[in-house]
Amino acid sequence: MTTIEGLHNFRDTGGTPLTGGGATRTGVLYRSDALNALTADGLAQFAESPIGVIVDFRTPTERAMAPDLLPYARPFEVVELSILEGAMSTMAQDLMRAGGADPSLVAQAMAMLPTLGELYIGMLQHGAAAFAEVARLVAASTDDAPTAVLVHCTAGKDRTGVATALLLDAVGADRAAVVADYASSAENLAGVWADGMLATLERMGAPLTPALVELVTGTPAAAIEHALGWVDAEHGGSAGYLRSGGLTDAELASLRGRLAS
Fold it and tell me: Per the database record, which ranges form the Tyrosine specific protein phosphatases domain (predicted)?
């Protein structure tokens, strides 16, 4: 299963090369944009997938604006782990509301926008417990029932991208391959999704500067490299970072067994 109709940035993380040889397992960890636009065929595809656990990183406001659609054919466990950093639609709305129609205030609001790398560092500083819980859910999944984990936010590039990079890196995935997976989101989102998001921001009065366009639609390799570099410097790597969020050594071993064996 490589696509689900109605999703722009969906993929299985299986097949990511490991530094010791081999690749991560398929059917264990998936990533996606929000599930609010699944078509009838997409819902059927989703129901037939190994996915049983859905981790939603969006804030309550984001969920209310675009509730996930899920199949009725079978139950799913939905785990809400709200992470504020990366809630771009909410952030942009708040900034533009603060700026109002005054161009100088809009310019001040735009100047306050972080780079993606800065955004990710803030996310990492506050989100260790949430990211460790994702690792715990993946570690607890099995092949006996549809318990594969899907992580998503709104675009599936920032909160989802950081979470996926951490888990893949922690189980020994090749760093260049981890970065490449992150970077591929921009191409997946280009077109309908990106154009729609930018048009919405433009209607709100936000000038579409290169910095804002990258923040909302981009996934430059340097951004996730910056984040992983911070993890290396502060925690000795992604495994150490997840431990700082409460992941035990036994859970880390189970994570590696599920994803990397």
Answer: 129-168
Residue ranges per structural domain of the chain? 11-260
> Parallel, antiparallel, or unpaired for β 29-32 and 11-12?
antiparallel
Q: Residues near 51 by Cβ (< 8 Å), separated by ≥ 6?
A: 30, 76, 146, 148, 149, 150
Q: Which CATH number fits domain 11-260: 3.90.190.10, 3.40.50.620, 3.60.150.10, 1.10.10.10?
A: 3.90.190.10
Give the C-alpha separation, 249 to 255, whole Å: 10
Give the integer Cα–Cα distance in Å for 32 and 35.
8
Helices marked H in 143-209: 159-170, 175-189, 192-203
DSSP 109-120: HHHTPPPHHHHH
What are the pLDDT digits (tens) for 90-105? Answer: 555 555 555 455 666 6
Nearest alpha carbon to residue 210 among 120, 116, 123, 118: 116
Task: Please give the Cα distance from 82 to 62 (Å, whole number).
Answer: 10
pLDDT tens digit sequence for 107-129: 666 677 889 999 999 999 999 99
